[in-house]
Amino acid sequence: MTDDHPKLPPTGQVVPRRPGSMQPRELGFTPQRPVGWLAPLLLLSTGLRALLATLFGAYLDKRELQNALDGGWFDHSQTEDGELWLDYVADLGDGFDATYSVAYLLAQPSLEVGGATLPRGRLLLMGGDQVYPLASGDGYESRMKGPYRAALPEPPAGSAQPTLFALPGNHDWYDGLTAFIRLFARRKDGHIGGWRTEQRRSYFAVKLPANWWLFAIDEQFGAYIDDPQLQYFEQAARHVGPQDRVILMTPSPKWVKSVGNPEEYDAIDYFIRKILDPRGATTRVLVSGDLHHYARYSDPERELITCGGGGAYLVGTQNLPDELIVPQPDTLTRNRSVSRPYAFRKSYPDAKTSRSLGWGVFRRVPTRNPGFVTMLGIIHVLTMLAMAGAAAGNAGIVARLFSIPLTVMLVLIIAGSVAFAQPPKADKPGHARHWIAGLLHGFAHIGLAAGGTWLWLNLPFHDWTWPGPLVVAAVVYGPVIGFLATQLTALYLLIASFAGVNVNELFAGQGIEDHKSFLRLHIARDGSLTIHPVAVDQICRKWTPDPGGAADTSWLHPGEPLTPRRIEEPIKIR
C-alpha cells in the first residue's frame, strides 16, 4: 500500500521553499536593472554623497569604533589535503543579470576553464563596492545578498561550508559603513546563502596553507590607515615570519592611480614597510577592484592585479600605461620604498576592444540614460527661449515669466560642463586638460543652443500667441534638441577619453554589462600559488527557475550559454 500524501518534515524543522519563478515574492528580493549612471538625480545624489564623504568622512569614520569589536585574525591554514582554493571578485552589486552571472559561476562545484577543472573556492573574497550606487540595507539585499543567496542557497552537501570575507569600497563607505558592518560583520552566525561570514571588522587577516597569508586593508579616505587597524595588523603580523608570503587586498589599485597622483600609493607603501617588511615576509601579490576591468603588471618579485569585473559596468583599458613605476618617484614621502618598474602583462578587454567599445557611446548613452536626454532637452529649451528673448528684445510680459536670464543659463552650462570634467587641484599634473576639455564642452553646447535659436527664429512658431511657442518648444523642440545635445556629449566623451578625461564616464554612460572577470586562486601542497584569471565574455540575460533542485544548488540556471574562459595563462608564484 502506498501513501499518496506528502511526507512532512520533523516537528520544528523548516524546509526552505525553492522559487518556481523570478517573481520577487518568491525570490525574496527584487532583481534590479543596471544603474543608469547619467540619470540626473543619481548624478546629483552621488555627487553630494561623494562631497559629504570628502568633507565629513573623518567624522563618520567607523574604523575607530571597530577597535571595540573582536580583533582576532582567522586561521584557514589547516585543510585535509594541504591545499586551498580561493575566489576573488570585486565591484559586483549592480544589475541582476551581470551580478548573478558571476555569482552563479562562483557557486558551482567546479568550472571547466581552458581544459582544466577548477574547484569552487573554500574562501570567497569580495574586494569592494558590493553595492551600487549607494550603500543601504535594501540596496545590499536586492543587488548583492539576494543574487548570491540564489546562486548558493545552502551550504554545499558533503563538503565544508565556504567562508566569505568582504572589503569595503568607496560605495560601501557612503553611509559610513553602517549597512556594510550590519551585513558582513555583525553576527557570529552570519551567512549569505551558503557562505558563512566570519569577519568582525571592515578589514581582516587570514592565515592560509603553505606559509601564505592574506591581509585586507581598509584605506578609504586615502591619506592614512587608522591606528586601531594598524594595531590589529601588528598583532596578526606577530605570527608572520621570514618564510611567509603575503597576498595584500586593497580597495583600489593605487599603483595605477598614482600615475596621475603620486601620493595615492603612500598608504599601501607605508603598510608594507611598517607592518610586513619588519617580519621578513615577502608581499608577492597586490590585488584590487575599483577599476572595472582586468589588468596585470608585474616584476620578478610581485604581481599587481586589478580585477573589478564582478558585475558593474565595464571600464575600458585603452588608457593604461605600458609600465608602472611603484612607488612613484615624485611622491613627497621621504621614507618610501625603493621605486621599481612593473611591466604591463595583460588586460581584459584589451586596448583595441576597449577603443571599439568606446564608439558605442552614441547608441548606448541615449538608450541607457533617458533621464539624461530629458535633462539636456530642458536645459537647451530654456537656453533657446532666453536667447530668442534676448534677440527679439520685445517679448511680452507673460513670455518673460517663463524665460530665465540668458546670463544665468550660460553660466550654468559652462559651470556644469567644467564640473563634469572633474578638474583636480591646480597642483596636480594634467589639471589643465580637464579645464580645457570642460570649457570646450560647454562652449560646444552654447554653440548648439545658438544654432537651435537661429532655427527657431526662422520658423513660424515663435510668432504664435503665447503660450503656443512654449508648448511647441517643450513638445517638439525639446526632444529633438535633447537627442542632439546627448550626441554632442557622447562625442565629447569619446574625444576627451583620448586625453584621459572622463574615461570612466565614457563607459559608465554606456553601462556595458558584458566582459566580466574574477580570479580563482589555488595554493598547492608544494607551497605554490596559482592564479587563474577568468573571463565571461557575455553574461546571461535569460534564467530558468529550478524549483525541484537540491537545496544547495542554484535557484536559477542559465537559459543561454554562460561560458567562462581564461584571460591569460595561469600565473604561478613560488
UniProtKB/TrEMBL annotation:
<protein>
    <recommendedName>
        <fullName>Metallophosphoesterase</fullName>
    </recommendedName>
</protein>
<feature type="transmembrane region" description="Helical">
    <location>
        <begin position="372"/>
        <end position="391"/>
    </location>
</feature>
<feature type="transmembrane region" description="Helical">
    <location>
        <begin position="469"/>
        <end position="495"/>
    </location>
</feature>
<feature type="transmembrane region" description="Helical">
    <location>
        <begin position="37"/>
        <end position="60"/>
    </location>
</feature>
<feature type="region of interest" description="Disordered">
    <location>
        <begin position="1"/>
        <end position="26"/>
    </location>
</feature>
<keyword id="KW-0812">Transmembrane</keyword>
<keyword id="KW-1133">Transmembrane helix</keyword>
<feature type="transmembrane region" description="Helical">
    <location>
        <begin position="397"/>
        <end position="422"/>
    </location>
</feature>
<feature type="transmembrane region" description="Helical">
    <location>
        <begin position="434"/>
        <end position="457"/>
    </location>
</feature>
<keyword id="KW-0472">Membrane</keyword>
<dbReference type="InterPro" id="IPR029052">
    <property type="entry name" value="Metallo-depent_PP-like"/>
</dbReference>
